[in-house]
Amino acid sequence: MSTPSPAPVAAMAGGAGGGKGKGDAPTTIQPIRTLATPTAQAVRHTHPVLLLSLLLLRFKALVADPVPTMCSALPVLAAVQVAYAVACLPPAGSQQQQGAKGAAARKRKPGSDASGPNVVVTALVALVLSALATLALLAAFVLLGAPLLTHLPHTALCAAHLSVLALFPVLYARGLDGRAWLAVLGAAAPLDEAFGGLAGAVVGAWLGAVPIPLDWDRDWQRWPVTVLCGVFAGYALGKLVGGSPLAFGRRFGGAGSD
């Protein structure tokens, strides 16, 4: 009878970008490939449409009362992102598991079975890490000029949405692989859906802040409505571009992955 992975958190630490064993040369960080199942392909194409539709449905409420609207939307967003990650992305550590599969199969006793990373535990750990990352994003927002004393709930919830939307898929697929995260944070990782979505969300948040100080006197210019809209739009666009055949595996600067 098969047993679950004894150390799912260790798999998260290993990440999906590959590492190096004893005596091995360092491996190149590879893009995250979406699963090839029909369900995964259907979900990955409908996922951006669903996210933007949810934003449009709640836009008026977001403008009228941002804090309660973002509070009620956050669990829904988390559920959507968990479903997308489980259906479409390989969990952290799965690539190492596949790489060692041949050798393990030769040593395995008849009737035994090897199990990969537990997707449920991986998703839960990634959610916890996303919640912790919200604090870092909150600090980054404040350092970049976001209101803290007068709009702390607004800023914190905006940071939470950015973390769950854009960081969670990368955490789910790459875990805590230090080399991979250095490449991601340095914009040197190969493009894929997860990294493309993260890059697009960050750029979208920055562009979304542009209309706020303009003297248009519109209700939707309130903090953080335009920033949150930019996060969603940028994530959807970046995800589509990163997963496209023309951009997948390429790096900023035009280099492709090995």
From TrEMBL:
Show the InterPro entries listed in the entry: GPI_biosynthesis_protein_Pig-F (IPR009580)
What pathway does this protein act in?
A: Glycolipid biosynthesis; glycosylphosphatidylinositol-anchor biosynthesis
**GO CC, any one term:** endoplasmic reticulum membrane
- What is any one GO biological process for this UniProt entry? GPI anchor biosynthetic process
State where composition is biased (Low complexity).
93-103
Segment Disordered: which positions?
A: 1-28, 93-115
Coiled-coil region(s) at which residues? none
What domain of life? Answer: Eukaryota
Q: Any transmembrane segments, and where? A: 119-146, 152-173, 194-214, 220-241
Which key words tag this protein in UniProt?
Endoplasmic reticulum, GPI-anchor biosynthesis, Membrane, Transmembrane, Transmembrane helix
Q: What is its main location?
A: endoplasmic reticulum
Subcellular compartments: Endoplasmic reticulum membrane
Q: How does it sit in the membrane?
A: Multi-pass membrane protein
Q: What is this protein called?
A: Glycosylphosphatidylinositol (GPI) anchor assembly protein
